[in-house]
Amino acid sequence: MKSKDVPTKGPALATSKASSIVMVNTGDGKGKSTAAFGTAMRAVARGWKVCVIQFVKSGKWKVGEEKAATSLGVEWLTIGDGFTWDSKNMDRTEAIARYAWTVSKEKIQSGTYGLVVLDEITYPMNWGWIPIAEVVDVIRNRPPSVNIIATGRDAPADLVELADTVTEMRKVKHAFDRGVRAIRGIDF
Fold it and tell me: Is domain 20-171 given the CATH code 3.40.50.300 in the classification?
């Protein structure tokens, strides 16, 4: 790096405080949910009440984050029906996603939680199972103390527009591309 490329001044200082924010973790790279769960751990460490609602993963998955989070008091709801390509009944899978949204609305609107993670919500939104406008409206009109993290590929434009912070995970390469199976403790 040439000396002319070295920053000599930091970014502008933040001057306002928000009671809550909306974060979106999207993109085709790995780590969207993992980043959200890391933030959930940070929130728990600060004494916040946290709720995670999973829209795609089913109870058949035993993910490490769930075990750690529930032991710390996180309310973890795995409501999904699993990967859609494994579904034997898409009407049932869609109904389960709609139910997950009903539960999510209740959790958000209750004002009980400092953080609600809507894990993989972008998929049922993009498939038309959950109205994008309704999700955006509920998040926009949430109680002032409720922070939201929404995860999943291809976040709808209206959700991105509403969000305060949007991170796009970009895959450079992944072991799976070489045929390496998911590793317990790394991938789940």
Answer: yes
What angle separates helix 32-45 from helix 64-71, to the nearest 10 degrees?
Answer: 10
Domain spans of the chain, in order of start: 20-171
* C-alpha triplet 29, 153, 112: angle, nearest 5°: 110
Q: What is the pTM of this model?
A: 0.89
Whole-angstrom distance, CA of residue 68 vs CA of residue 72: 7
**Rounded CA gap, 178 and 158, in Å?**
35
Report the amino acid identity of residue 128.
G
Q: What is the spatial distance between Cα 96 and Cα 38, in angstroms, rounded to a whole number?
A: 26
User: Per residue of the chain (188 residues), what is the pLDDT tens digit?
Assistant: 566 777 777 777 778 888 999 999 999 999 999 999 999 999 999 999 999 999 987 666 667 788 899 999 999 999 877 666 566 777 888 889 999 999 999 999 999 999 999 999 999 999 999 999 999 999 999 999 999 999 999 999 999 999 999 999 999 998 888 999 988 888 77
Q: What token pair was written down for 151?
A: 């995860």
Radius of gyration in angstroms for the set of CA atoms belonging to the chain, rounded to a whole number: 18
Backbone φ and ψ for 30, nearest 5 degrees, come out as -75, 155
What are residue 25's DSSP bridge partners?
Answer: 151, 167
